Amino acid sequence: xxxxxxxxxxxxxxxxxxxxxxxxxxxxxxxxxxxxxxxxxxxxxxxxxxxxxxxxxxxxxxxxxxxxxxxxxxxxxxxxxxxxxxxxxxxxxxxxxxxxxxxxxxxxxxxxxxxxxxxxxxxxxxxxxxxxxxxxxxxxxxxxxxxxxxxxxxxxxxxxxxxxxxxxxxxxxxxxxxxxxxxxxxxxxxxxxxxxxxxxxxxxxxxxxxxxxxxxxxxxxxxxxxxxxxxxxxxxxxxxxxxxxxxxxxxxxxxxxxxxxxxxxxxxxxxxxxxxxxxxxxxxxxxxxxxxxxxxxxxxxxxxxxxxxxxxxxxxxxxxxxxxxxxxxxx
Amino acid sequence: xxxxxxxxxxxxxxxxxxxxxxxxxxxxxxxxxxxxxxxxxxxxxxxxxxxxxxxxxxxxxxxxxxxxxxxxxxxxxxxxxxxxxxxxxxxxxxxxxxxxxxxxxxxxxxxxxxxxxxxxxxxxxxxxxxxxxxxxxxxxxxxxxxxxxxxxxxxxxxxxxxxxxxxxxxxxxxxxxxxxxxxxxxxxxxxxxxxxxxxxxxxxxxxxxxxxxxxxxxxxxxxxxxxxxxxxxxxxxxxxxxxxxxxxxxxxxxxxxxxxxxxxxxxxxxxxxxxxxxxxxxxxxxxxxxxxxxxxxxxxxxxxxxxxxxxxxxxxxxxxxxxxxxxxxxxxxxxxxxxxxxxxxxxxxxxxxxxxxxxxxxxxxxxxxxxxxxxxxxxxxxxxxxxxxxxxxxxxxxxxxxxxxxxxxxxxxxxxxxxxxxxxxxxxxxxxxxxxxxxxxxxxxxxxxxxxxxxxxxxxxxxxxxxxxxxxxxxxxxxxxxxxxxxxxxxxxxxxxxxxxxxxxxxxxxxxxxxxxxxxxxxxxxxxxxxxxxxxxxxxxxxxxxxxxxxxxxxxxxxxxxxxxxxxxxxxxxxxxxxxxxxxxxxxxxxxxxxxxxxxxxxxxxxxxxxxxxxxxxxxxxxxxxxxxxxxxxxxxxxxxxxxxxxxxxxxxxxxxxxxxxxxxxxxxxxxxxxxxxxxxxxxxxxxxxxxxxxxxxxxxxxxxxxxxxxxxxxxxxxxxxxxxxxxxxxxxxxxxxxxxxxxxxxxxxxxxxxxxxxxxxxxxxxxxxxxxxxxxxxxxxxxxxxxxxxxxxxxxxxxxxxxxxxxxxxxxxxxxxxxxxxxxxxxxxxxxxxxxxxxxxxxxxxxxxxxxxxxxxxxxxxxxxxxxxxxxxxxxxxxxxxxxxxxxxxxxxxxxxxxxxxxxxxxxxxxxxxxxxxxxxxxxxxxxxxxxxxxxxxxxxxxxxxxxxxxxxxxxxxxxxxxxxxxxxxxxxxxxxxxxxxxxxxxxxxxxxxxxxxxxxxxxxxxxxxxxxxxxxxxxxxxxxxxxxxxxxxxxxxxxxxxxxxxxxxxxxxxxxxxxxxxxxxxxxxxxxxxxxxxxxxxxxxxxxxxxxxxxxxxxxxxxxxxxxxxxxxxxxxxxxxxxxxxxxxxxxxxxxxxxxxxxxxxxxxxxxxxxxxxxxxxxxxxxxxxxxxxxxxxxxxxxxxxxxxxxxxxxxxxxxxxxxxxxxxxxxxxxxxxxxxxxxxxxxxxxxxxxxxxxxxxxxxxxxxxxxxxxxxxxxxxxxxxxxxxxxxxxxxxxxxxxxxxxxxxxxxxxxxxxxxxxxxxxxxxxxxx
DNA sequence: GGATTTTCTACCGACAATATCACTACATACTCG
DNA sequence: CTTGTATGTAGTGATATAAGTAATAGAAAATCA
Lengths: 331, 1316
Hints:
The complex is a heterodimer of chains A (331) and B (1316).
Chain A: H1 15-21, E1 34-35, H2 38-52, H3 56-61, E2 63-67, H4 73-81, E3 85-89, H5 93-104, E4 110-113, H6 120-126, E5 147-152, H7 157-172, E6 184-189, H8 190-197, H9 207-215, E7 216-223, E8 229-230, E9 235-242, H10 252-262, H11 270-273, H12 301-313
Helix pairs in contact in A: 2-4, 7-9, 10-12
Chain B: H1 3-21, H2 27-36, H3 42-46, H4 57-63, H5 91-97, H6 102-116, H7 120-133, H8 135-141, H9 144-156, H10 162-174, H11 181-193, H12 197-210, H13 215-219, H14 226-239, H15 245-262, H16 270-277, H17 284-289, H18 299-313, H19 315-320, H20 323-352, H21 355-360, H22 363-387, H23 394-403, H24 408-421, E1 431-433, H25 434-453, H26 456-464, H27 474-500, H28 520-537, E2 539-545, E3 552-558, E4 560-567, E5 570-577, H29 579-587, E6 606-610, E7 613-615, H30 630-641, H31 646-657, E8 659-662, H32 664-676, H33 704-740, E9 746-747, E10 750-752, E11 758-760, H34 771-776, E12 777-779, E13 783-784, H35 786-801, H36 808-817, H37 819-827, H38 842-857, E14 865-866, E15 869-873, H39 877-886, H40 889-894, H41 906-923, H42 927-932, H43 938-948, H44 954-968, H45 973-994, H46 996-1014, E16 1016-1017, H47 1018-1023, H48 1032-1048, E17 1074-1076, E18 1082-1084, E19 1092-1096, E20 1101-1105, H49 1115-1144, E21 1150-1151, E22 1155-1159, H50 1163-1178, H51 1182-1193, E23 1197-1205, E24 1211-1212, H52 1225-1229, H53 1234-1243, H54 1262-1267, H55 1271-1279, E25 1284-1291
Antiparallel strand pairs in B: 1-5, 2-3, 4-5, 6-7, 8-9, 8-12, 10-11, 13-14, 15-22, 16-23, 17-18, 19-20, 21-22, 23-24, 23-25
Helix pairs in contact in B: 1-4, 1-49, 6-7, 6-9, 6-23, 9-10, 9-11, 10-11, 11-12, 11-14, 14-15, 18-20, 20-22, 20-24, 22-23, 22-24, 22-28, 23-28, 24-25, 24-28, 25-28, 31-49, 32-33, 35-36, 35-38, 37-38, 39-46, 39-49, 41-43, 41-45, 43-44, 43-45, 44-45, 45-46, 46-49, 49-50
Chain B binds a DNA duplex (33 and 33 nucleotides) through helix 25, strand 4, strand 5, helix 33 and helix 43.
């Protein structure tokens, strides 16, 4: 109830010391970027608050889950913003220590956890009563008022993979989103942001952006300026609000199969590409409600969903949609 | 001293073979004949094994006219006579190798296709364009052969354009190409055809006056068909009235020549010969237009084919046919036969008209026929489009000409069969990679084109079959040949007509005619057209319904469809079978979809005359399997040209001369097992119902992890299913192949991998295949067992069962004691005790059971006529060679080079040694050791010991051992990994201990290869300004050349000169490791960095190696692969030597690399041969020769070197991390690297200091520095603060050879278990 | 030139990534002087 | 008619693609600043 918290200021090392002490030497957590500028975090949060129109009361009800806090700059901003509590998931030891020391000054609001936001188990564990279990909601017509998910995505394939999985999880109400319609705000590296938010027709249009379009509303909140990140990178803070009704009606596995195959040749027309779905799959063209002479990259999520549905209903569709892509060598 | 004898004998024998297959006027052949038609007394080879023979003149010259150093009679190698070519980075290499740049080779292929299809306007355009845009390259690559073929195109058809021909002739001369006799033959032919006798005469007169070409050569030209030669006679008649002396002279010469070719009586046959060949003069397109839709062959052809058809279906019938005709037909008309089978079925059932039989008609065949009929109009349409190209349709221009090379019917059936054949290839379930498919289809078209239109072999064969004495197994061959000849005489007209039917070239085909290989890009493009048309038209009707309306409909599902898969994030284009097609294919035996090409032969393969001439009767094949490496090809070519590889070819001929048959007893059991659908031995069970998928876990919908694992499980199951399926398919193909040859003899033409190891060319069923294949095959010829044969048969029986680590006596007893089991296996193979199924090699065991049982029951085993091949296997053959090379006592004993009472088993030996070490450490309290104590079996270490020869690294060995330990199951899973690490170390150290000599040699080989692969020719360094030129003249020459190049490539003058320094030389490392085997085969390691390019095809782009890109070597691969390759080249040498020697002794011989087979009764003889040859081989200083060859081959090469410079500015030379690098993880675990150890001892005292100013060159001592590694100095340097490195180039030299041990190779002679 | 990051990790038989975009050089069309 | 400019295009090189790289380590080559 104390909206007046003593504000927390994280210690920010110089770039050189950061390089030495924090930048992971192992290729495991290779390009972990972290916000290294208090002002960026503060403005970011301010904008976010404007956008979400959170009241102090609402904030006081909200538990934030933050992945990859890094130096804890964003964590501090969240703390200062007045969240009820903040689970800060940091697997990397030097960072974890940094978060721990912040937490010690946070009167128990910041709760550092040595978990990796990338690991699937993490979300199973978060479901435990001790963490978020009590805050779960079933209904999807309403946004979960108690959980807020945030963090800084690594600029790596893992980061990209993670983001894509968030999107699928929203669609399928899995992992984090098995706990309700949880809003998210993520710091995303520029390139990934482009892909994540690419609209139809854009050059960056890809599978992920279709899924995203189908399952969430995305808003750009703020972008980092010059030296806000260690190492210097352009990041965007993005607010992700899952839709009450996801636009994908088809069976997810079918949808994914269709999506994957269509996007092989995204600048070709559906008329042609549809054949790669299965032998004789062009028969479903007539059963679609839109002009099928359309480039794949120009299709909306709904249109692709419709293709998936019609494909699924097609009696002669290939039964096996799981493709073994890993030809593992035999002895 | 048997080797020189062998050499002589071989040469003599080749001579015989040669003459049979030789066409007298082949140029390359002339050269060969020069070396082979030397006086030679056959009796020498078979009877008098005198020592002096190797120094007789005949033997010397027979061996090689080029061998100039015959002073060491025992030597096999031709000292100083290696094929040495410039480094591929040098311009000189391009000149010598004539490796076409990819753009040119494509254009050439297209050009040739245009010529062959009569599209001369297009051909002219291409010629013009090439000469305009690629002037320089054309100067290098175009020769008279190419130009002749081009010129011939003008005068070929029924509308000869002799004047155009003449115009191009002038241009030919102006391009600096010297016309030869062929050129004149073509020109004259053209004018004769047009009736311009005057011009023709003028041309010949011109030739006589101005050139050295002989009239005889003109008339004998391959470009002239017999009836065209008769045209020359016409010329004589027409010119009789001329009074000029010159003309008279000319005519006399001409007459003489014509008589020589045609025979003087030929004038009487002119009329009927002409009528016979005249249909072929009709333009190709018209021929095929007249063909009735359903019957692509004309009347005679159909009759002929149906004969073969019935022959193939009923192999009893086939026996009655002439085998030569059958083989010819199989090769030349395999696709027609396949097609005819479809037609035949269809017509037959139609005729009967009853639906009952229509039901019996295989649905797959019905569909295939349907596709065939549907794709043909599409093909015709496409061809039409290609003919009338509007605008610049680049794609159509590049594949169009190829589509008319073959009749559309053939294109269609080729495509269908190829796609069916590729089912499940490249690890794709129910499909294939697009790249593979389109390239293979293209290749199949090319091969079919070659087979159909390359008449030369046919001509040569027919003409060349003279009745000569051949050695033992050649006799039957000759009988067949004789029969063929007789038949040919009776039946000549029909046969000729049926063959000449598809011959568009007036019967003109020969090696003088240019026939460029199609580059992969062309193959891919051509293949993609056919494939995509087939995809478009091949459909299967399937009942279905419209889910929206519920209305019942029939969908026409494409049998194949093009799609993509992602493999680790990368797109891979694939062509998949539809489920319906998969169903069809899996339901019926693959009998009628059996691919007609590359089947076993039913007559003796054509001996290898040349590196690319032998094997099948008509198919153009090459004796070595080349990997996208022009370098390999050119070395082989040069060696062949210089008669260096005759011995090797002879060896291959011997392997190909072994006559096989299907073991009917085993076949019946296999069939029964197969039809039962159960798993028997290595035949997997038929999957009747889909395997049930595992239950989805409860958290499947909420936890991605759960889902992931479930999906993985499903994938695993699918994978298993796929493997089962493709395994069953494989068995299906093998069984069907065997069935096709049930009553026919089989020969396997052989070729080699690039190290010289021999392989049968037919891929599905051969004696190198798995147990099933081997069980299905036996020698065709039977030989009475006799005392020793009976003994060996029993031993062999035990071996196959897996009882092969005991003494021969024990093994013999094993068989005797198991006689009841053996008889039961024979009497009730599928219902009895099934003893044979427990054998290590069940099918072969069963095969042996039949043999043993039959022998026993015959009443007198000693007289039993046995066909079973009995094997003698080298015990760890690689290590045997290593031990022999190193003279390594302990090693020699361990692999049975030295005699012993019972076979030594390396694997057990290593296991014992490791066990000892482990026990020792267990007592010392080592936890790993305690856990492993007593658990180290032979099996655990076997794979690692085996692969050690191949240079397995620590990581690989650890993985192997890990797997073995996991299998055991008595070790806690989580400890397995660390235990495997521990054990791998122990195994390596034990190996190092046991095979110290091998280790040393292996390390030396690795090190030497590494140096070679990193080295650069001096010239290159000079030209890049790194080293000074030797002389101003050299510099001048270089500058001139550069200037010249600049002029040439002014257009694309963006020459990026890559940074070139001793520090980072990898981009310029162009030197591959090359050596010559003791039999004279040059071996080039092909490992280079891949230079793939995307090629656009109709279906998708395809990623293909760009051949003209000279790419830097993969130095690591070069060095790690060298030891195994070298050893394999030696074991291949030993095998080929043994093969030839066995042949000389009249033994039937077959081999699987290091397992040698012969009749039971001949095992003793073969054993002697094996040992003699091994001793012969290893009596030579192989390592010294290799070293010497390297020194010669890589003379003037420079090696990048880095040396440390200390503060006092005095260079302390040493290689930075270099010398020690040769002992990789592996040898690090063993004794210290012998290379450095040796040198430490030898050169440790040498003065390492070097004047840095002229350190770059001329310092002969530098090579020592490379090797030496002064440990103490290293330690000093660690303390020194400032390290400076200097990079420079030193002369390439090699470490001293490891010292050879005391083992006397002659002991092998007395080692019973050397091969056993 | 020194340091860091990536890439291997057993030989041969038997190979194989592809769509798309940005950019360049070249050819053609068109226009203007 | 020539020349210059705009436009179109064939050819080339770069880049993204998918996605739990199930575990492990160590040297050599490639890349980077």
